[in-house]
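Example protein
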Amino acid sequence: MNRIIAVLLIALCSSFSVTAADKEELAEYAYYGFEPEIVTNYISNRKKLGYVRISVDLMVKKPEQLVSLERHDPLLRAAIVEILGNQTEDKVKSLTGKEEIRRECYEKINQLLEQETGQPLVVNLLFTKYLYD
């Protein structure tokens, strides 16, 4: 009876062990946030200027990659400001438009990083704050 329990415990423990391949898949994600928040105007249908204020976080697989993001912060920030400045009021204020803007920013950021560092570093781009008027 004790042997059966011991064999079952060994089988159970070995099924939960992490292999080297599994460790590779477990990435150490890190986040880079732009400070201060990004504030810019967008194309407004009204006489009053419209503006958008966002907080952006970039997700990378390795904490070491944060150095490259910090080095290229002004370039990446300028690209996001340019993208936001070219958006219409309807797009800025709709949920689907917000997602399209996020994707456009994500693609542009990775394109610029690939030009500068040789590889697209960003795994995901998150709007952690998104306010408009």
